[in-house]
Automatic annotation (TrEMBL):
Compositional bias ranges of the Polar residues kind: 1-15
Species for this entry: Acanthoscelides obtectus (Bean weevil)
Family to which the UniProt record says this protein belongs: Belongs to the peptidase M14 family.
Listed name of the protein: Peptidase M14 domain-containing protein
Basic and acidic residues: bias regions: 20-30
GO molecular function: metallocarboxypeptidase activity; zinc ion binding
Gene Ontology biological-process entries: proteolysis
Annotated stretches, region: Disordered: 1-30
Domain of life where this protein originates: Eukaryota
One Pfam family cited in the UniProt record for this chain: Peptidase_M14
Length: 465
């Protein structure tokens, strides 16, 4: 752990002059201009008096109902980062690449914790490991992959494509229906081998042919207590926690409505293994792996969601931040602001948490920067970040002491674009943002570029851990 001593003075009172500090037009061509941008982005701690959240978010240039196309070249518009007109927190509908089909109705899941620890799956060593059969031996019952004229991100809109293609015809009445065209969803193809065995294919991260691991999709037309087998046959990772006892997640809509039961672990006869699909004739082919498991559904004609891990979407984050902003107590020491816009025009938020301080005390505070969800498929990071925010804004004695001694700068979701489209690792740049911290390309990786400003910016007025 390294601490850096602050050398520069920083205004600590929050009056009208400080609130309008963002009016200044900033240029990025020199070091002094970057420091000026940092100063405008990271204002001193606010002291609120109203019961409603009075620390405001920089207004987005898009109104809530704006469905205009957003182009990649517009990503550096200055007004997103410094805007003198501030407004209460308003959620923004997710913006999608225009080639993505998106169902209009948002998926909602209840928040529910299992009453006890759920057991791991204990492998027996006798698990069935079926080899992929493919379309030749089955029937495609679901297929969806966004198709673009170019293999890179070019523009976005709220709701993605204006066209929703009709579902595939079903050969039999008892065929399962699949769907993944919703926020964070990922399923590219479902092949019915038999009425109770389905091969599934995941979509790669957009504009790549890699990183197939995250899955999240809906199954309907299910039969109660009928044993189904699912095999996801194109996973990318050569090792998985499914080999160590992890089980997939299941969410029954009827269970949530009738019994207030949320996500639960499911599956038996779980195996994760190599497909051995690389041959001497094609050594450059990517090795893939299969996750196979059996499952019984608890209700007849239910809608059931299956996921790699507990989903946490961009809309979920906005709902949480909206509640934080409107809380009569938490809003007195918390602010939510806009750090930047992503390539698709989605908001990257940052949260400041600290006790209101006198100018003298504020200069003695150290700053702690915390970020999460750089990889979309790693949803536990969002749930851990929610726990961090819950704790830091809570009324416990340790939380109050931390707020008194530190300034917390928190970026809860670094990669909203990847989260929205259901990627596993990359942003819409087709790159892993966790490998871009040395980059100087602001336009391609805005959330990383502006997060990097946070540490030197805090060094002017606080110690940095």
């Amino acid at each position: 752990m390294t601490t850096h001593t602050a050398h520069a003075q920083y205004p600590q009172t929050m009056d009208n002059e400080n609130e309008s500090a963002g009016k200044e037009v900033l240029e990025h061509s020199s070091e002094s201009s970057v420091k000026a941008l940092q100063s405008a982005l990271f204002l001193p701690p606010l002291s609120n008096t109203g019961s409603y959240f009075s620390n405001f978010l920089v207004k987005s240039p898009f109104d809530d109902d704006d469905d205009s196309k957003f182009k990649l070249k517009d990503v550096t518009s200055r007004e997103w980062f410094v805007n003198s007109k501030e407004a209460p927190f308003n959620t923004q509908p997710p913006r999608w690449p225009t080639e993505c089909q998106v169902l209009e109705e948002r998926v909602h899941h209840i928040s529910d914790t299992p009453p006890s620890f759920e057991p791991y799956y204990v492998p027996t060593g006798n698990e069935c490991q079926p080899k992929p059969s493919g379309e030749e031996l089955g029937t495609i019952v679901f297929q969806y992959t966004p198709i673009s004229a170019v293999n890179y991100f070019s523009r976005s809109s709220v709701g993605g494509s204006k066209y929703i293609l009709s579902t595939l015809s079903f050969p039999e009445e008892d065929t399962l229906r699949f769907e993944s065209r919703f926020e964070s969803g990922n399923l590219a193809k479902a092949i019915m081998i038999t009425p109770n065995y389905y091969e599934l294919h995941l979509r790669s991260d957009m504009y790549t042919n890699r990183h197939m691991q995250w899955f999240y999709f809906k199954v309907s037309n299910v039969k109660k207590d009928f044993l189904y087998r699912f095999s996801i046959t194109n996973c990318s990772k050569d090792s998985s926690l499914y080999s160590e006892g992890m089980r997939p997640l299941m969410y029954s809509v009827k269970d949530s409505q009738l019994h207030s039961i949320g996500w639960r672990r499911c599956g038996q006869n779980i195996a994760y293994y190599c497909n051995e699909n690389v041959t001497p004739e094609d050594p450059d082919q990517q090795m893939t792996y299969t996750l196979t498991f059996t499952v019984k559904f608890p209700h007849e004609d239910d809608e059931v969601y299956l996921a790699h891990c507990y989903p946490y979407t961009y809309s979920d984050l906005q709902d949480y931040l909206s509640e934080l902003c409107s809380h009569p107590v938490k809003s007195t020491f918390s602010t939510v602001r806009l750090l930047c816009k992503t390539l698709a025009g989605n908001n990257v938020y940052y949260v400041t948490i600290t006790s209101p301080s006198t100018p003298g005390d504020a200069k003695k505070k150290r700053a702690i920067v915390i970020t999460a969800r750089v990889h979309p498929g790693e949803t536990p990071s969002s749930w851990m970040m929610k726990g961090v925010l819950d704790f830091l804004t809570g009324d416990s004695a340790p939380a109050k002491e931390l707020r008194d001694k530190f300034v917390f700068k928190i970026v809860p979701m670094l990669n909203p674009d990847g989260v929205i489209v259901g990627n596993n690792r990359c942003s819409l740049s087709a790159k892993d943002l966790n490998r871009q911290y040395r980059t100087v390309i602001r336009d391609a990786y805005p959330s990383i570029w502006y997060t990097k400003l946070m540490t030197p910016g805090r060094m002017w007025c606080y110690y940095v851990l």
